[in-house]
Amino acid sequence: MPQAPKLAPTLGELLQERGVSRRAFLKYASYLSAVMALPAGSASALAEGLANARRQSVIWLSFQECTGCTESLTRSFSPTLESLIFDLISLDYHHTLQAASGEAAEKAREAAMAENKGKYVVVVDGAVPTKDGGLYSTIAGVSNLDMLKATAKDAMAVIAVGTCAAFGGIPKARPNPTGAAAIDEIITDKPIINIPGCPPIPEAMAGVVSYLVSFVKLPELDHLRRPKAFFGETIHDRCYRRPFYERGLFAEGFDDAGARQGWCLYKVGCKGPVTYNACATLKWNGGVSFPIQSGHGCLGCSEPDFWDQGGFYRPLSTNLRDMGPALAGAALAGAALGAGAAWASRRHQESYQREQNPNEGDKK
Amino acid sequence: MTTQALHPSVSPQEPPRLTGMSEAVLAEVAARLAEVVAGASVPPIDLTAMPLTSEDRADLEQRLGRGEVFATVESAGRSQIWETQFSGVWFVRHFGENDRIASECIEFGAAPEILFSHRADMSAAARRLAAALQSADAREKTDH
Ligand code: SF4
Ligand code: SF4
């Protein structure tokens, strides 16, 4: 009798062999649903979904980048709850992490693509040089541009990890000598999730991948294709220095009395009011701190073109003033009045983006 | 124990204070417990991302108090679970790395879900136990 093809084990079965019980799934699911603000009571469903899913094939492409994104994902977990993410995926190709190199590595990528046609997820970190046929960055003689197009062709979805992949980032900074472009400028026929940040918060990367694996659908995204669960609010919306902002108490330098008293960093260049990211709530290094808590303003690293916003230490209003009097007025009014600041910061963000990309409509 | 949750921290310059949030959560706890008593099953209240100050949290924990059951679960890190002084109201706290609170919630009912053995784990355990007995049997036979 012909035998039915043997299905790959489910994640529940796979982890059970290693002594990981369903309680671990439930715990991971509670953690994820808290972090992603999923509806109350969804942890059980998420846990069951994860346990019954099969390992997700992931092909990770690193292009014009500094490896900071990979560092962020791999360095931040100790072998407890958060590290479970590595058991959920089968990382079939990743230049930095895989043992194979050269032709063997490229063969592994091709094999994973053939075996999981239409089902694998492509994760990209780094921008893609497009000038002069993309010759500024090649892997095994293939330009990043060609490799991205070929690998994304049969993918289920593409996750652009880090600001370089999501928005072009530092490679795209003026004068952009290599013609660096974001992933969604090149791939236009696949679902794309952007997880920007320089580097992105590891919980955001892990959360999105887990969500994809267990629910087999994209989480809710904003107009820049960022998951709302992590990019739904500005740093300023959740900043603990906000009471000082509201009262108009600002540090004027990094060593003045205001700075020592923990006052708002708006005047020393904080970009928190126009930056959507989860640093103020999830924080960094396992929840230890985040830049503002360590005394430095937000650089706005999860926003398009953050590198070219006129200086990290110049107050937002100054930058905005360069761009037009109406915007500067809105920002200054926010600082002076305080009231309705969250609303004002949303407005800044919108007008700021319109100003940046006058020809770009809703990217959705 | 020093722990840091996911909720926004409170500036050292702003002494933490009661905001009334613990009161609001307690009212919600009472409403949900009443539903459970009436036979409904109700979702947990997730405290992780709630804008509670540390004083709100302490107030909530203190007013819910400790009941008869306290359990530690060691699975992908540590979790602490206790029944509050109100039967059917459970506090579930999961820790991530560095003893940081990864998530915490209030669950309702006879016992929180994490304390139950999952059917899949039970059937794996049954297989494991049977195999262990079999190999013990085989060893005994070869010994004699
Ligand atoms: S401007 Fe920056 S430091 Fe000030 S409250 Fe907003 S995010 Fe915090
Ligand atoms: S605080 Fe701002 S600059 Fe810093 S990591 Fe977060 S979003 Fe990026």
Overall description:
The complex is a heterodimer of chains A (364) and B (144). Chain A is of the alpha/beta class and 364 residues long. Chain A contains 17 helices and nine strands. Chain A has a five-stranded parallel beta sheet, sandwiched between helices. Chain A has a two-stranded antiparallel sheet with strand order 4-8. A two-stranded antiparallel sheet of chain A has the order 5-6. In chain A, a hairpin with a 2-residue loop joins strand 5 and strand 6 (142-143). In chain A, 49% of the residues are buried. Helix content of chain B is 37%, strand content 19%. In chain B, helix 1 (21-37) runs parallel beside helix 2. In chain B, strands 1-5-4-3-2 form a five-stranded antiparallel beta sheet, with helices on one face. The N and C termini of chain B lie far apart (55 Å). The interface between A and B is large, with 44 and 38 residues. Bound molecules: iron/sulfur cluster (2 copies). One iron/sulfur cluster is lined by residues 235-236, 239, 241-242, 245, 264-266, 270, 272-273, 292, 297-298 of chain A.
